[in-house]
User: Fold these one by one.
Assistant:
Number 1:
Amino acid sequence: MTTITELKHHAGATVTLNGWVYNLRTGKGIVFLILRDGSGLCQCVIAQDQVDEAVFLAAEGLTQESAVSVTGTVVADERSVGGHELHVTGLTVHQIAVDYPITPKEHGVEFLMENRHLWLRSQRQWAVMRIRNEIIWAIHRFFQGRGFVQMDAPIFTGNAVEGTSTLFETDYFDQKAYLTQSGQLYGEAMAMAHGKIYTFGPTFRAEKSKTRRHLTEFWMIEPEMAFHDLPMNMDVAEDMMRFIVTEVLANRPEELKILGRDLSVLRNITKPFPRITYTEAVERLTSEATDRLLTTMEEERKAEKAALEAELPALEKELGGAKKFRKVQIENRIREIRARFEEIEEDFRNIPVWRKSALEKKWGDDLGGSDETLLTMQYDTPIMVWGYPSAIKAFYMKRDPDNDAIALGVDMLAPEGYGEIIGGGQREESLDLLLERIREHELPEEVFGWYLDLRKYGSVPHSGFGLGLERTVAWICGLKHVRETIPFPRMLGRLHP
Ligand code: 4AD
Ligand code: MG
């Protein structure tokens, strides 16, 4: 059995490919079948005068997503998808698919989400999953190559890590249990056993708002390192992100091309990531530069809307007399324009809200999604914002020894408006201070007994962070929404398929 990616090693040979019909074009005495086998696409040419009559008849009767095995000679052809095509001699039909719901015409995102189990077969979705896989593989290589041990944190837990408002509660043999929000606390215990560890697992947050950044189930990678302070932690996060992006650029150029990803910002990954304090971030948000950015944004949207409005009448006029293929093209374009209008209208509604949030930011306020967007639009590499107000950060964060109002936490924000992809920091290692924080946060002391033990028996400075896999995939792929970054997204209002 040969796969399409392997065809380059088989030029001139006869091979059999197994897959599905991605696209079919029939002409006089000839059928062009684009085969999809999971590894790639390949054009298979079935000429009536080259095959048995039964084979040609079978080929003519194929439909989108029918399952087939195709035998033929591999011919190098630069113009063909993937650089090779198959001159067919034999065809076996495994199953004929009837009325596959996802057609070349443009579909609304709700329809596609309902058909996620099938949508995964489409080119763009395929490319996203390939890149997701590359990122996962790069993360493992990065940590394994640096002496980290991968360990797994439990998913059922007895306590909150990241605040109590986003806990999923479940019944655990008549006891309350929660789905984990983060493996960090367990990671700290494991780091005291192995020095440097990372967890890689699903985490859960009952996020009750629909945003393009939030899932209720997402995958987090959480390294935890003994004898590491905040600057060392930031070095690891920066090196890791540089490694991930470099590997994707090197190994997934085809997939990035399918997505139409602008590579210039990804290529900036070799530059050092600016490290700014929270205080500097607030100064930047309340500055003239942010005000100007918003004004430009508004003007750009107005110009875009006007250009699209000007395009519409000609399209609508052409539609009346258009032939079948062109008609689908025009309808798709019109649908695209209308969808973009909705986005632009939403931006018009949002811009004043974003402006108010950013320009009126006071020291001590948390940075919201739009603040992060506005901040990261002003950089062309990821940035690290550190030294947040301790009042808005988790109980476990160590505070600046010289300034109790500041926590030694860090967020990595992705450029191009993507915002937070990593959250982490240095942990409080003093037993007394940690107890004080647990009481201040009114957390149940008894369930944290084991965690406090870590401060009784060989407590050391230590740090770590959590990388959100889906947000990282969204940024690297240049996607607007995290829903396309995971095979079966779970979010508010979506549990199926
Ligand atoms: O910033 P967070 O909440 O940090 C923690 O959970 C720490 N305990 C991690 C640690 O230090 N070990 O979450 C970490 C990252 C975020 O930066 C974001 O990328 C992602 O997890 N994330 C989400 N991704 C998708 N949907 C959500 N609802 C997310 N919430 C957080
Ligand atoms: Mg965070």
Number 2:
Amino acid sequence: MTQAVSFRGVCRHFGTIRAVDGVDLDIADGEFFAMLGPSGSGKTTCLRLIAGFEQPTAGTLAIYGEPAEGVPPYRRNVNTVFQNYALFPHMNVRDNVAFGLRVKGVGRAERAQAADEALALVELSGYGARRAGELSGGQRQRVALARALVNKPKVLLLDEPLGALDLKLREQMQGELRRLQRALGLTFVFVTHDQEEALSMADRVAVFAEGRIQQVGTPEEIYRRPASRFVADFVGSSNVLPSDFTGTGPSGRWASLRPEDIRLDPAGRAATVTSRAYHGRVVKLGLSLGGQELTALLPPGDLPEPGQSTHISWDPAKVHVMGPEA
Ligand code: ATP
């Protein structure tokens, strides 16, 4: 399989700060790849390394098999969509989109046509003459996307591209990005700290912490079989429990049990309700079972109040026991 991007032992240290600290990673051609992790975990620095805005302090990076060392950003066949969009507010939409082509010396008619094609891709045909500063947040996001697509990159880098949008628009744009990525067959590398966004959009996800990749896998692998306590906790607020408590797997390990896999069961173990919060489609119950705190997500209905006792159980097959080092 062709690899679009390959990291081999890549580090980017800033003095004593290890922003990226030994990353090995292959991103396949045509893949929608998400980099997920808390703030400061090194995701953006990885993206900037691919773009060529940063250089590794150790290790090597290849783009479509070619070593990236010494290749400037504009020669990399890679384009970035930034979180703040970085549009020129007084320029019209078409000129914003065509800006990169103008810098490259592409003629006026040709760049206007290319810009209109890119605007059609993001469903903004007819907006070319509007000033960028007059657009809504969602429209600006599309213009930023068109401006990257007009260069026909093979790899599109997206740094929290939906971060500035409200929830509804964000969900809509998630679907559109996915559709566009499939239709164009491009490689997308998407940075986010939103686990739901990463899991719902990506073919594969890398979970970052402290400059290192904790786990790479499909959304289902990451969610169902987290490799470490950190991943279990970060991806989906799991209950991370000693395996002795769950009674599953070898003693002395950590196990993860998803809140939605806990059910009320009169034949189950006795627990005390410590909190209850209504979240629309689900209710979040805090529970204490033999001194162990647990979180359960349950469908709304006749649920016990804080302070009351209840009985709970779970299917042992839903408990994921992590490796000895985790
Ligand atoms: P966020 O989600 O907040 O953008 P991130 O996971 O993308 O975070 P990075 O931006 O890659 O994280 O930063 C990783 C670490 O490297 C942070 O501690 C950051 O402060 C540090 N860092 C990044 N760029 C520089 C720089 N130019 N000089 C010094 N330190 C830097």
